[in-house]
Amino acid sequence: VIVSGGLQVDLRMVEHNSFGSLLQYFTGNKQHNISLREKWRKQGLKLSEYGITDIAKGKLEKFSTEEAFYRRLGLQYIPPELREAQGEIEKAEQGAIPKLVELSDIKGDLHMHTEWSDGHDSLEKMALAARDMGYQYIAITEHSAGRGIAHGLDVERLRQQLAEIRALNERLTGIRVLTGIEVDIRADGSLDLPHEILSELDVVIAGVHSSMNQSEEKMTRRIINAIENPDTHIIAHPTCRLIGEREPVAIDLEAIFRAAAKHKKIMEINAMPDRLDLKDIHAFRARELGVKLSIGTDSHSISHLDFMRLGVGVARRAWCEPQHILNTLPLAALLGVFDSLQG
Questions:
Q1: For residue 343, is pLDDT > 60?
Q2: CB 324 within 8 A of CB 189
Q3: Do the domains 16-93 and 103-341 sit in the same CATH topology, yes or no?
Q4: Taking the complete model, does pTM exceed 0.85, yes or no?
Q5: Please, are residues 153 and 145 in contact by the beta-carbon 8 Å criterion?
């Protein structure tokens, strides 16, 4: 079938009681299925989109759900995001597949912009939309003054916004609006706003937005300088990639993750569709090294808040459980983490 835009879609029809087998067969990495087929062929079973056939008896067993399919093989259910032939089959044999983070685990969004900088909606609209999603909190993180093209905030304008947020929190119930900033990491690794104002904020996200052609050594040192800054809580979109538009900057992520782990700083999974940064393999490694991750939508309008599901998808592919993601914490625990990073 050719749909609008010229995209070809292949349709495969099976009986309802084979749907689980079909869904499993066409979901996930091809190598995952090859590994399954080779392993169980040695045990006299043939796996296909129609079900599991006992080769000796020629009998086909059908499965209406993926869970039943994996159960027949003696395996714990393997979520689609983990079907990459990266050890998940062995983990499933041991019953060691983790309970992955889910969208329903997310308690708030820690990265968004409003009409104060380059966003399109007001503080109140963003807060009300987030409350409707069931969130306990959001963080307003406008650009800092260094992002002139994004109408970034200097100290004076940021103080004005803080007053508006305080007033908004007095009016609203059911959600807390956290004060914050997405502060520029300058070329030398210093932050674009002074300690005096950053120390007043609930959350400080630091990100690179300029001088992206630095050498790997300089860029790595630049980001580590920001990590070592006591005012920094979260490093935003660490590789700076824009999918289809800009390649990732040259950095030593291993060194950056180790610095983040040492200083207990958080690395962001930016859920914007053109970023998805950190990507799954990098988030996986950060998690392995003990780095806490946050998922932020980088929303510039209320419609962007729905991008959270994309960030959760990246986290799931990185084998993240709820405890690995900062914004699965309830408000009081979250503020406790930020307080512990001050000074």
A1: no
A2: no
A3: no
A4: yes
A5: yes
Rounded Cα distance between 132 and 126, Å, is 10
Please give the order of strands across the beta sheet that includes 45-48.
45-48, 51-54, 59-61
- The domain locations on the chain are 16-93, 103-341
* Spatial separation of the C-alpha atoms in residues 300 and 120, rounded to whole Å: 6
| The pLDDT of residue 342 is above 90 | no
Distance between CA atoms of residues 192 and 184, nearest Å: 5
Q: Kindly write down the DSSP assignment for every residue of 70-120, as one continuous string.
A: HHHTT-----GGG-SSSSHHHHHHTT-------GGG--EE--B--TTTT-S
Residue range 46-70: mean pLDDT, rounded: 96
User: Confidence band (pLDDT; 50, 70, 90) for 148?
Assistant: low
Render pLDDT for 265-302 as a digit per residue (tens, 0 to 9): 999 999 999 999 999 999 999 999 999 999 999 999 99
Beta bridge mates, 46: 53
Q: Which CATH number fits domain 103-341: 3.40.50.2300, 3.20.20.140, 3.40.50.1100, 3.40.50.300?
A: 3.20.20.140
- Which residue's structure tokens are 């759900």? 65
User: Taking the alpha carbons of 115, 117, 120, 122 in that order, is the dihedral positive or negative?
Assistant: negative
| Dist. CA 68–CA 261, nearest whole Å | 40
CATH class of the domain defined by 16-93:
alpha beta
Task: For CA atoms 308, 297, 217, 247, give the dihedral sign.
Answer: positive
Spell 122-153 as b/e; 16+ CB within 10 A means b.
Answer: ebeebbbbbbebebbbbbbbbbbbbbeebbbb
CB atoms within 10 A of CB 284: 17
Is 223's pLDDT higher than 90?
yes
Average pLDDT over residues 227-247: 97
Mean pLDDT, the chain, rounded, equals 96
